[in-house]
Task: inverse folding
């Protein structure tokens, strides 16, 4: 039996105009020196004219343009002769020459995760505010973490908040090579906040964050597991925040921190942290730990069973607690690398026990969704229970994102009786 799933008429599309500043890296010190020497040969009047051109072109596209240029100058001033007294304009111009724009979403805006917003004030009784995290991918297939927000009512009508034309980076406080803190200013709008790869393990991507609101002893914390990619190796990181302004990022450790797709349960189970995982690129596993940052053992949970998932299975976000058990969205990969979204149900007291799984996909690519950056893919990093409906965002062909909903009771009936 195929479940009735409602596609919601809301799309989140990539916008090539959303840009950040990044350092323009030149590896050759001799070339850096030649570039700076050319700038030093300009007269003060020429320097002012060139800086004015730069500011006219870029100041209305970025917050804190001058601050970024000055920061880049500070990073490059070791190449400037110490006996030269530089004007502020020349310092800024040097910084500008070692800066470039990066279009965050030029390739894709996909693999969304949906979480309830920490601020639910000033809303009608039938509405709730949510946050969507998304994987933004640009030049060089470098992925970063960005956010959107909106409201949803009891009938699953979604209204997305407006998106700022700016994108801003946090201040990064490095703890060590693998761990850091990212801090945004209070006036940085949520849709502006961009967590760009920072630590060595993630320099080529922050991929597929799976957010969950975690409850422990009546304290609530937002966690997200995500894949860190350095261009050659994959590792798993844990993000932690209470306000979506201040983020702590930690590299997960342990013998079973492998591959992709770790998804944290929203609370401890029998006194331990619990995590869905997929260490072998093929099967679903479950893990338990006393330490949220260390995972040493796993237990097989599910193997591919049906044709639409013969190639591999995985999770599509953190489990959702229901009266009948832990509801988990999943994904399966079938012939021609076609991704579909499914679901399975785990025992509430002992989630190593599989109660049921869908024989057929919950959501498959339709004719309007199959074309994109990676064709024939629908994929989610986590949804929510909204009244009697499961609402989940999903990526379409790894290019853009949308939303769907399914009735909770009908889905549970199918999982327990199908």
Result:
């Amino acid at each position: 039996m195929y479940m009735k799933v409602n596609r919601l008429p809301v799309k989140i599309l990539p916008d090539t105009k959303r840009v950040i500043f990044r350092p323009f890296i030149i590896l050759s010190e001799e070339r850096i020196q030649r570039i700076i020497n050319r700038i030093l040969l300009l007269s003060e009047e020429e320097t002012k004219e060139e800086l004015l051109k730069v500011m006219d072109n870029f100041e209305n596209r970025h917050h804190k343009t001058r601050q970024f240029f000055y920061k880049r100058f500070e990073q490059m001033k070791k190449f400037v002769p110490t006996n030269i007294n530089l004007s502020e304009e020349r310092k800024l111009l040097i910084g500008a020459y070692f800066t470039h724009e990066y279009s965050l979403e030029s390739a894709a805006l996909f693999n969304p995760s949906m979480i309830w917003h920490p601020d639910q004030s000033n809303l009608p009784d039938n509405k709730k505010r949510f946050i969507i995290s998304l994987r933004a991918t640009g030049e060089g297939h470098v992925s970063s973490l960005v956010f959107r927000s909106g409201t949803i009512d009891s009938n699953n009508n979604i209204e997305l908040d407006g998106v700022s034309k700016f994108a801003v980076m946090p201040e990064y406080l490095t703890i060590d090579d693998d761990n850091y803190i990212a801090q945004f200013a209070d006036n940085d709008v949520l849709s502006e906040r961009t967590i760009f790869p920072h630590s060595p393990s993630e320099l080529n991507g922050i991929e597929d964050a799976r957010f969950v609101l975690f409850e422990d002893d009546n304290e609530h914390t937002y966690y997200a597991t995500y894949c860190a990619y350095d261009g050659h190796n994959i590792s798993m990181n844990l993000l932690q925040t209470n306000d979506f302004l201040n983020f702590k990022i930690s590299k997960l450790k342990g013998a079973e921190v492998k591959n992709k797709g770790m998804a944290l349960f929203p609370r401890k189970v029998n006194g331990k942290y619990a995590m869905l995982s997929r260490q072998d690129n093929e099967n679903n596993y479950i893990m338990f730990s006393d330490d949220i940052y260390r995972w040493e053992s796993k237990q097989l949970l599910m193997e591919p069973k049906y044709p639409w998932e013969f190639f591999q299975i995985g999770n599509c976000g953190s489990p959702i607690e229901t009266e009948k058990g832990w509801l988990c969205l999943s994904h399966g990969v079938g012939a021609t690398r076609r991704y579909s979204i499914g679901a399975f149900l785990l025992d509430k007291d002992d989630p190593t026990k599989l109660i049921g799984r869908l024989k057929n996909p919950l959501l498959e690519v339709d004719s309007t969704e199959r074309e994109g950056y990676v064709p024939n893919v629908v994929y989610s990093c986590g949804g929510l229970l909204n009244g009697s409906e499961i609402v989940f965002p999903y990526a379409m062909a790894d290019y853009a994102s949308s939303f769907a909903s399914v009735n909770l009771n009908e889905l549970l009936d199918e999982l327990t009786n199908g």
Notes: The first strand starts at residue 6 and ends at 12. The CA atoms of residues 61 and 111 lie 26 Å apart. The radius of gyration is 23 Å. The chain has a mean pLDDT of 97.
